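Hi L.,

You mentioned the student needs an example of a multi-chain input paired with its predicted structure. This one should do, with 851 residues in total across all chains.
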Amino acid sequence: MSESTIQDGTPSAATEKRQLQLGFLRSLTLLFLLVLIWVALSFATDSFFTAANISNLMRQGALWAIIAVGQTFVIVTGGIDLSVGAVVGLSSTVVAILLKADLPIWAAVFCTLAIGPAVGSFHAFGILRMGLPPFIMTLATLTGLRGLGLLLTNGLTITGMPPEFVDFSRETFLGLPTLFWMVVIVVVPAYLLLHHTIWGRYVYAVGSNAEAARLSGVSNARTIYLVYITSATCAAFAGILTASRIGVGVATTGEGWELQSIAAAVIGGASLFGAVGSIPGPLLGSILLTTISNGANLLNVNPFWQRIITGALIIVIVWLDQMRRSGRR
Amino acid sequence: MSVSSSHSTKTDFPRRPGAAGNDEGGNPNHVTPLLELRSLDKRFIGTHALKEVDLSFNAGEIHAIVGENGAGKSTLIKILTGAYQRSSGDILWNGKSLSLSTPLQALDLGINAVHQEVVLCPHLSVAANMFLGIEQARFGFLRHRAMVREAQKILDSLGFDLPAAAMLNTLTIGQQQLVATARAASRGCRFLILDEPTAYLTRAETDQLFTLIRRLHGEGVTIVYISHRMEEIFELAERVSVLRDGRLIATRVVAETNPDELIRDMVARSIDEVHYKEQIAPGEPLLEVEGLSGPGFHDVSLTVRRGEIVGLYGLIGAGRSEFAQAVFGRRERTAGQMRMHGKPVNIRSVPDAIRAGVVLLPESRRDQGLCLNLDVRFNLALPSFRQLSAGGFVRRSEERRVAETQISDLNIATAGPGAQALTLSGGNQQKIVIGKWLNHGAELFIFDEPTVGVDVGTKVQIYQLFAELLRKGAGIIIISSYLPEVYDLADTLHVFRRGEIAATYSARAVDHETILGKAIGN
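Structure written out for the whole complex:
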């Protein structure tokens, strides 16, 4: 280290600008890819660029986006939450059961949302107090909570929810589907929390170096509780919306969504090693994933092929992202 | 790059065991170079790591390499072990040109390296590590017991008191380093590179290592010894080469040089005294500890005044670190009181300590002190987010202001507040770890081994930082197992033995031997 490398404000600002631009470029290329696919699909099919299909796209994308946003919090701490799909299934049956029992809608929604803090706290407890790796802890609840949902419903489909509840997800507000507005309700506070509050800073610190964070006076335990509760609550919320969207409570709803949410977060630039990721990312990632499955349906692509294409795209997108990242150094 | 016949004599055969030591001490040019570098150049994108380095390693010599962090030592090692490819220049082995394009090729020639960080498998046994890659098997099945037996034999013959069947991660870092050295020595090694091998070793382990090095030297192995510790170089090496900014500055015969000359070569600026401390008169008591006891230490009382450096010296396991961690709230304590500014404080956790103005700077900055993949600004603001925010929301302008203040105050060499912490050199990373607490307003700084693994120039900067802290009225506790450092720095030196303060001395009151004697228990 020589004195000649010491620089002051001017070049630092330039570096920062460059990094900002690179971050912007990444979301831009994802956005670009998305727009490209949209344009291609509009030309390739008659049905893609129709109001009905775009609304449908938004509705399906909304559910994935909400759980992916929660998942991103966990991933930034270097953890993983495999249980989100199971929480979606459980909360969709719980809300259906409560509504069938004639609870007012607000009460049913409120009680079901409470599944989030409960499950999230349990995860954090297992990770912190029992020393289980996040992967194992949430793998266990993935199985367990799915079982709980099946037990509650005896494997049956719960019907008979009030029409106001079921209609909610089909309505629009200011011309956009209500489910889209639900994403806004989740994303805006999530963005502020992760990028503008002390807690958000601590999420990154814990993900980057838990020991350094601890020695700096950060309560790692509180941070871990925060992220797992956020993730599970987002999943519970998505579960309620799913119940509304499909009109019934089924315990097996949301199977495989945990992987969709992880894929969305990772496509959006989050790193499973922690401390890298941002809120716009999972949003773009989930829209991309939804577009692929929607477009493939419209193009009559064999659904088995859809899965293969999705898998290949995840590899390519994350690979490109890593290339871009390593080029920065 | 033109290749001309060199000035030195060339023979086709290297000197074999026994013959090597004989004609040493004479003119090194008359000894066969085993390995010779000619105009070796290495460029990375953005940096020129090695510039036209001409360097020869004679068969059977101990050749020390010194230089500040970033001088090109690691790059040189990586090229010699085949991990990196040179950009241009020649490498000659026994006078023959060598491609050295893979690590395997280097190993085949008998070039081995023991790296500063142990690169072994922590979850395998000592024996499994020693035979890693050259396992003994019969019909495709590993011969576990035979390998353990043989490994034990090797360890015993080297004079290392280490169990071959134990898991590597049950050993101390120093012991692991010895395993790594034994591993290299047992593999038909002819050219051994040791990178800062004593950084984590205790005195006894260092002695064992030196015995091994001398023995390998006696067998004709060429040894490249990289260290920041001058006394080791003067104890072991025959020649020493100095690197600075990727250039070879000089190769000197150790018997004909002195530490001052080498340091001048290394830093290109004269350093009056490496162990530098300004005279600052201690003021009123800052921290008073009375009768503190806990696991690993009992009944420890001491006082740290403003402007004072208190040194805690002791062998590993003597309780000094345990005590300091209890002061910082990281370990439990069972009895005793603490006072800050004369008022009792009850420190039971790290946040308690930080609130009271007590902070600890861990030994391993990279692993425990920094969020390496986050930016400099983030790291500088990390403990202070509460002060920098309103209603839970972090004020970005404040965050930036605080970071820029510390970067200019501490002269942190970085591309900017947005640069990732891992792009900075070790000394500058250390400055971040200190700087983040200056923001926070801490008053008592506990440094755990503050200069482990840093080069001379950075060391001086760290000592200047200490002086800066003291001038601002802070108190400092330094924990060290490196006596010359605490001896020269501390105003008050407490010697720990078996969890208790065995002796307390004021600055330079007694000599090293007395202190060491107290620590060992004579």
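You could point out the following to them. The radius of gyration of chain A is 21 Å. Chain A touches chain B at residues 1-3, 5-9, 11-16, 19, 192, 196-202, 204-205, 208-209, 211-219, 275-276, 329 (CB under 8 Å).

Best wishes,
N.
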